[in-house]
DNA sequence: GCGCGTTATGATATCGATCTCATATGATTG
DNA sequence: CAATCATATGAGATCGATATCATAACGCGC
């Protein structure tokens, strides 16, 4: 069908192996022959077929990306898009390609992973989440297949390459920020607690409260899980509490915006009646009204570093399993306000 | 290294070709042998190596996705994420995999495409944009390589498979919607006019004005291009016009929200002082305040259909080059308001 | 002028699967 | 019971590249 190395060899009157050597620019071939062969390649419109090369070199120059269940909340979330851009960028620099897993259920994703790993379609894998009860990561460990996680591994962190923020610290800092503003009743709205990141951020939140000698009230800790409890309900509950919060730490920009909507529809004034901080600094944080103060987790960098680390690992399989922590930055916008010193009658 | 078909053959005491036939569940192999071979595969932990198969079958069961330059505005935009989800979903149903091109410049993208097409890494390609001055589509045509576009081709539509909305109609309808609400001065804020979609939506907008016997004022037609003119500037300009608009058609939810922010910061009340419609019905439309009325372009379906069409084409290469039009729906929310019958003095 | 080391190239096996063609075996039939 | 045929399996070529080993050609020193 298309032009192969043999066609080139025949026309150029050399052996296929010579053509192969010209392709890899081997120093063992004379300049004269190289020129001749290259001319023929040009004339015939030759282009290498990677599949042939892959078979012998046992390397695909491709990395696989595994995301969590994608039905509603993964691609949807701009955070993931940014991650993907970062990965994509790093891959391109190193001339690697990207192979994307899809799949709507955990089981489907797992099968896809097995298929791409065992089927030798990728050289390594980036896992874009960290959660307990996950089959993918243990599987990759068992196979001894090169992989990098975005997010801190649930266990055996020492044996695993990962790229992450210091989520405990980030959450602590941003809670501190609210405390500095005078808030004493601070609520926390997290995501799916199966994920490591959710637990870390709650932990940081609690540390900040403890540090600030503020009482921890479980009634102020809520969850928004995709589909399950929605913002309206959570807001409802938070406002019912006697002595309701004046500040909220929300672990995701998207959810933060949802909550803001719910609050305004209840007649609260933002940021005067409720100070809010989000996480991730996605583009939507800039768009809300008031603009959202949020923790920039530098998702692009997170993605970029994860790909770079994986490629490093592929190049030197025996390298030490380093982990990379990407610093976070609080981006101050307009969604926070010093606590009003109301309740004069007290 | 890993277990191959030959290892299985040796242990099971059959020929490699027999094992291959068992894999493809050929009816020419007895049930007894199949059971025996399968048992050995199980025991040895055999898994097919796709690269071998690809080489002989000349098919990768993989489709490539080409997006426009990704630096700022492609993955960023939830519209693309939804498209990707739709593609991903359809691919998974048909057991196809996804190969993603990256690249920060047009030239880099073009090279990636050549690489994946000539290098035989994918069976077909989905191009997620339609623009003039594009090298990718003409190239794919020249190679006679199977591809599907999302968006109407700039030319030679009859020879090209594509999936699209009727953007002219959609834009006309949504402009009509504003006209029905009594608006007579309506502005249009589009995107990069290199893209076919931008031109179509402008066209529909103009048709609606003409139909409604409204005068077309070029001063009310603006553009927001990624990075270039920003919302504040555009809003500034629009409000400077004598007899400024009371309604705006904005061809993208993201830009619509940017404009809304700019308007409120100028002290306008929404939707009373300005009615706004967006496009795409991305998740951010739901989050704005007031919630954005927008044209649902059904991006998930767009992606889904494009993948399905491509896979159809791959299965029957001589099939007629059909095109699919996905209907649009206006999603009414709270960002539009009947025109106030002010200017009593008139 | 013979032996030897270099250099440039060729011949061939190989990667892991599939596919075509050949063949052994057993069943069917006149 | 020989001829014929269907069935189940094996042998070997093949896909398009790379890599190893062999070898031809050449120059050089003694």
UniProtKB/TrEMBL annotation, chains A, B:
Keywords: DNA-binding, Transcription, Transcription regulation. PROSITE patterns: HTH_LACI_2. Gene3D superfamilies: 3.40.50.2300, lambda repressor-like DNA-binding domains (1.10.260.40). Residues 3-57 form the HTH lacI-type domain. Pfam families: LacI, Peripla_BP_3. InterPro entries: HTH_LacI, LacI/GalR-like_sensor, Lambda_DNA-bd_dom_sf, Peripla_BP_I. GO terms for molecular function: DNA-binding transcription factor activity; transcription cis-regulatory region binding. This is DNA-binding transcriptional regulator, LacI/PurR family.
């Amino acid at each position: 069908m298309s032009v192969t190395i043999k066609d080139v060899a025949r026309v150029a009157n050399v052996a296929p192996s010579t053509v192969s050597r010209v392709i890899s620019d081997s120093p063992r071939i004379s300049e004269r022959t190289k020129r001749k062969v290259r001319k023929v390649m040009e004339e015939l419109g030759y282009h290498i077929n990677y599949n042939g090369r892959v078979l012998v070199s046992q390397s695909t120059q491709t990395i696989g990306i595994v995301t969590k269940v994608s039905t509603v909340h993964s691609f949807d979330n701009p955070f993931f898009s940014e991650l993907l851009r970062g990965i994509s960028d790093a891959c391109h620099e190193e001339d690697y390609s990207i192979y994307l897993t899809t799949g709507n259920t955990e089981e489907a994703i797992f099968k896809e992973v097995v298929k791409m790993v065992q089927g030798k379609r990728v050289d390594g894998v980036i896992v874009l989440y960290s959660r307990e009860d996950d089959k993918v990561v243990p599987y990759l460990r068992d196979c001894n297949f090169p992989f990098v996680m975005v997010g801190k591994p649930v266990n055996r962190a020492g044996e695993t390459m990962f790229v992450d923020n210091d989520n405990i610290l980030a959450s602590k800092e941003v809670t501190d920020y609210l405390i500095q503003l005078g808030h004493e009743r601070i609520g926390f709205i997290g995501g799916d607690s199966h994920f490591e990141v959710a637990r870390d951020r709650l932990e940081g939140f609690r540390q900040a409260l403890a540090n600030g000698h503020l009482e921890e009230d479980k009634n102020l800790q809520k969850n928004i899980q995709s589909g399950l409890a929605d913002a309206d309900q959570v807001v409802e509950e938070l406002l019912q509490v006697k002595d309701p919060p004046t500040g909220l730490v929300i672990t995701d920009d998207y959810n933060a915006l949802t909550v803001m909507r719910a609050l305004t529809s209840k007649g609260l004034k933002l940021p005067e009646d409720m100070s809010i901080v989000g996480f991730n600094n996605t583009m939507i944080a800039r768009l809300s009204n008031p603009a959202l103060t949020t923790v920039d987790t530098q998702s692009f960098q997170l993605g970029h570093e994860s790909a770079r680390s994986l490629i490093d690992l592929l190049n030197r399989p025996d390298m030490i399993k380093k982990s990379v922590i990407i610093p976070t930055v609080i981006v101050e916008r307009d969604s926070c306000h010093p606590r009003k010193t109301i309740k004069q009658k007290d």
